[in-house]
């Protein structure tokens, strides 16, 4: 939800129109996120384990937080200093430094 709001604000600031086809694919992504959590829960129940659904949830929450931070960066909003250091560290790992 927050991702969609920040993406919409960024698109309006960058003078890009919202497209229904993009909204459709964002909705499909959310549907598959819920579906993966559902299947992870079912696997947890089938094998009597407790960690697969939790790991899936943490993965998707992290994914959404990164998307929200990307949208904030596109809008030239300020980040707290710890986030800036963390993002710079991630950039260095991706670039191979």
UniProtKB/TrEMBL annotation:
Keywords: Membrane, Transmembrane, Transmembrane helix
Record's subcellular location: Membrane
GO CC, one annotated term: membrane
Its membrane topology: Multi-pass membrane protein
Top-rank lineage group of the source organism: Bacteria
One Pfam family linked to the record: Phage_holin_4_1
Transmembrane segments: 23-43, 49-69
Chief localization: membrane
Matching NCBIfam families: holin_tox_secr
Family, as annotated: Belongs to the bacteriophage holin family. Cp-1 holin subfamily.
Protein name: Holin
Organism: Paenibacillus nanensis
